[in-house]
Amino acid sequence: EIVGTWRARASGRRMEVTVTGFDALSAALRRALETEAQTVAEVRGAKEALLRVE
What we know:
Blueprint: E1 4-11, E2 14-21, H1 27-43, E3 48-53
Parallel strand pairs: 2-3
Antiparallel strand pairs: 1-2
């Protein structure tokens, strides 16, 4: 199920992952997004991830 769009942008040693949901995102989905953001950061060589939900 597609619930929104995302964009990842490197900022120094941090990866900013911005998620724009089509509707409100549940707490469980936000926790899953935190995990995925960290995975994206690690794969791209960043030390930490910052998740922004719009």
